[in-house]
Structure formats: structure tokens, C-alpha cells
Design brief:
Blueprint: H1 5-19, E1 27-31, H2 35-48, E2 52-56, H3 58-72, H4 78-87, H5 96-107, H6 114-119, H7 127-141, H8 150-164, H9 168-185
Parallel strand pairs: 1-2
């Protein structure tokens, strides 16, 4: 919550490199389509010399297509949407959703290869991730009367994530060990009390 988008992307790449140090595996990245996010991912991949496959979440794409289709009350291809909107003479606000969909799809075309993604077994939707975010973040932080500072919210989210992943017992044991080292072993080393 406190990190910038660039810091989050760098941390994600750090984690991926930790899991695949030799860059032997296929790296797939699902995004919501934000241009800034895609640019950060491409820059980080270039800097680390890793090939990533960026896929725009199908659900986000469908939202654009659905709004555009409702302008015409029909479900057709994007080229047919443009042709149909022109044929029926829609202009201005009448075809705003179609124009938005066309701009969105044209701008993201290289990241919409769902046929390739599915053929290779890659995910095409972030529904599971968004559900986890809703469970971890929204259900805890977006409650009536809650007042969160960034550091408190960050701490609560980390704790909820550790608990939801089933890692609380191991995490708590590690935390107690670190506190023991910091508070006791360091301060009372060699039977002498230090002021560290």
C-alpha cells in the first residue's frame, strides 16, 4: 500500500527471479490494461533481460466490448462493431462506448492473444487474484468507521495475508526468534548488559 507502482513491479520481478534465477520458465503477466502498468512491466523486463508475456485481463476487455455491444444491441466482432456503428449513423454520445472500446482494443491488441495464451495454458483472467484482494483488503479495510493510516493498513494486510496462506504459525515462530535475538541475545551477550 505504501509502495509506488514501480516499486511493486520491481518487487514482483525480484520474487519471479528468486523462483526462476536462470529465466528458463515462461513468465506471464496479467494486467488490467493500464498503460502505465504495462510500460513499467516492459521496462523492468528489459532491464532484467527477461521475456515476459503480458496479457490484458479478459474481464476488463469484456467490459469494454459489452458496453459497445449494448450501443447496437448485438454481439459482433470489433471490426463489425465499427462498421455497424457507422452504418446506423451513430454519432457523438450515441457511439461513445463503441469509440472507447475501439480505442481500448486497438491500443492493447498485442496483449489480447487469448488464443495463444489458452493454447499454452496461460491464465487470461485475474478473477482469483481480485477475489483474494477483496478478501484481504476490502473486507477488512473498507468497513464503516474505519480509519487507517498507511503503515497500520500495511501491517494488517500483511498479517491477514500470512494468516490466509496458512503461514501464521511459522511466521509467528520466526518473529519470536527475531525478537529474542534482538532483545535478549544481543543485549545480554557474554553475561554483560549492553545498552544497544
Amino acid at each position: 500500500m505504501t509502495d509506488t507502482a514501480a516499486q511493486v513491479v520491481a518487487a514482483v520481478f525480484d520474487q519471479a527471479e528468486h523462483r526462476d534465477t536462470g529465466h528458463r520458465r515462461c513468465w506471464d503477466v496479467l494486467v488490467d490494461g493500464a498503460r502505465h502498468q504495462i510500460d513499467l512491466l516492459k521496462a523492468e523486463a528489459l532491464q532484467r533481460s527477461v521475456d515476459v508475456h503480458i496479457i490484458v485481463d479478459l474481464i476488463h476487455v469484456l467490459e469494454y466490448l459489452w458496453r459497445a455491444a449494448w450501443c447496437l444491441h448485438d454481439s459482433i466482432s470489433t471490426a463489425a462493431l465499427e462498421k455497424a456503428a457507422h452504418a446506423v449513423g451513430q454519432r457523438g454520445t450515441q457511439r461513445k462506448s463503441i469509440d472507447e472500446a475501439m480505442n481500448y482494443l486497438s491500443g492493447k491488441a498485442e496483449h489480447l492473444r487469448y488464443d495463444t495464451a489458452l493454447e499454452r495454458g496461460w491464465p487470461i483472467s485475474t478473477g482469483i487474484i481480485e477475489g483474494a484482494c477483496r478478501h484481504l483488503v476490502k473486507d477488512r479495510l473498507d468497513i464503516t468507521g474505519a480509519r487507517w493510516g498507511l503503515s497500520g493498513a500495511e501491517t494488517v494486510l500483511k498479517l491477514r495475508a500470512v494468516r490466509a496462506n496458512g503461514d501464521f504459525v511459522a511466521s509467528w515462530a520466526w518473529h519470536q526468534q527475531q525478537e529474542s535475538i534482538h532483545n535478549h541475545q544481543t543485549r545480554y551477550r557474554d553475561q554483560a548488559i549492553t545498552t544497544a
